[in-house]
Design goal:
Length: 442
């Protein structure tokens, strides 16, 4: 039987779904569970050092640019960690990453034997077996599957964003993160701005009331075009899509989920991780219309609304030869915060009220430093709650833009829409058409 493109349905309530209120209750339960685990001193799985300066073995699943960067960041973050295994769907990607790591500043702690380079869609299993700490950096579609396998195997995880491309996947990730807490395992998210100390200071001031009552949020992620890998004659449909995963919504979730999630995560953080009640979004593709750009959009505009009445206007686009802007603004009754420039202005938005001075540690290294420190201290970090909420916030906006309808948090969370194909065989795999708002995909 030939594989077919995943089918989609309109959002509908599911008996197993979790409402926005119950999700908040679960967040509290996760925190309580973490405290209980620490008090009971559950200990660590075999081979994982709970404390001291023993070697922690690191494995990388997904050897693209972000995965290679994460590998360097991980070894930079802990001087007694070493890279022992690499895995990717394609052997050439894994081998290229190994060569790049051997030329990097952390080359002395790259100890990947020839037999520890794994290829294929099951490569993650072998990397997990070889490592104490697993870095997950494959296309987002595979994140729920890979995270579950790592936690089931008793391994600590650095989990790149986003954590899924559809609601069933995100729900699975939340359940996996609960298991990680029960097993005293770390799950650190690749939502790196949360580990930027300068932005932590700005957000803390917002939470402490420096802006007064919040009124409005605005965030932009307006960038240029990204990479493509031109198709080779010997590549099957599946291989071509996997090697160009950004451009297929079943693999990336569309760029609002894969990239704009950083902006949405900062807005969720400002709102103390309380998810929005609903969103109305629009989007489409006007520059990247050729077949090599798959079936994703190249621009989105979303308006989120919270029960408190606070609204957020969020825009993202990937346009060539246009102005770029990555910025986040928070407006309150007592001032305006410019998160990316670490400053707070007086009401009216012009006169400076406060600015963070000095250079903050490099956030890409800092998130790994805190991951490894938490493992060695026996108090593993678990970012499962907010990384699931931020992913779902992006997904609900995509659902709204694709459907042309307003989408509530509960509709999104309970959605049965799934992008999982019937087969991952390397053969024919037709590309689903670009979604036209008002069609049957939500």
């Amino acid at each position: 039987m030939q594989p077919t493109q995943p089918q989609s349905t309109s959002p509908r309530s599911s008996p197993a779904g979790i409402s926005r209120r119950s999700l908040m209750r679960n967040s509290t339960a996760l925190a309580i569970g973490a405290a209980a685990a620490s008090a009971l001193n559950f200990g660590f799985p075999s081979g994982v050092h709970a404390a001291g300066d023993g070697i922690l073995k690191v494995g990388l699943v997904g050897c693209g640019g972000r995965g290679s960067g994460a590998a360097v960041n991980a070894l930079t973050g802990d001087p007694n960690a070493k890279m022992v295994a690499l895995g990717d769907a394609f052997k050439d990607k894994a081998e290229d990453t190994l060569q790049n790591l051997k030329k990097s500043p952390v080359a002395a702690r790259v100890d990947v034997a020839p037999g520890q380079i794994f290829a294929g869609l099951d490569a993650y299993k072998k990397v997990i077996d070889a490592a104490d700490v697993v870095l997950l950096a494959t296309p987002p579609h595979f994140r729920p599957m890979h995270l579950k396998a790592a936690i089931d195997a008793g391994k600590h995880v650095f989990c790149e964003k986003p954590v899924g491309v559809d609601a069933p996947g995100v729900r699975d990730v939340l359940e996996t993160c609960k298991k990680a807490k029960e097993k005293n395992l770390a799950v650190v998210s690749g939502l790196c701005y949360r580990y930027d100390q300068a932005k932590q200071e700005v957000v803390k001031k917002i939470h402490d009331g420096e802006l007064g009552d919040l009124q409005f949020l605005q965030t932009n992620y307006l960038t240029g075009w990204l990479w493509t890998n031109p198709r080779k004659p010997e590549w099957s449909d599946m291989e071509w899509q996997l090697r160009n995963w950004l451009y297929f919504y079943w693999l990336s979730g569309d760029h609002i989920v894969e990239q704009h999630i950083h902006s949405l995560d900062k807005m969720l953080w400002v709102m103390k991780d309380v998810p929005p009640a609903k969103v109305l979004a629009t989007g489409g593709r006007v520059q990247r219309t050729q077949p090599q750009y798959g079936n994703i959009y190249d621009h989105f505009t979303s308006t989120f609304e919270w029960d408190s009445g606070v609204r957020c206007l969020a825009q993202c686009r990937q346009f060539r030869e246009c102005d770029t802007d990555v910025s986040d603004w928070v407006y309150g009754t007592k001032g305006t915060a410019d998160i990316m420039n670490h400053r707070i202005n007086q009401p009216g938005g012009i006169k400076l009220k406060w600015k963070r001075r000095g250079q903050a540690p490099y956030m890409y290294d800092q998130e790994h430093k805190e991951l490894f420190n938490s493992i060695r201290d026996g108090k593993p970090i678990n970012n499962g709650d907010y990384m699931c909420k931020s992913t779902m916030m992006a997904i609900m906006a995509r659902m709204s833009a694709y459907s042309g309808k307003a989408v509530t948090w509960d509709q999104a969370w309970n959605s049965s829409e799934s992008f999982t194909p019937k087969s991952y065989d390397f053969g024919p795999f037709p590309v689903a058409p670009v979604v036209v708002p008002g069609s049957n995909i939500a």
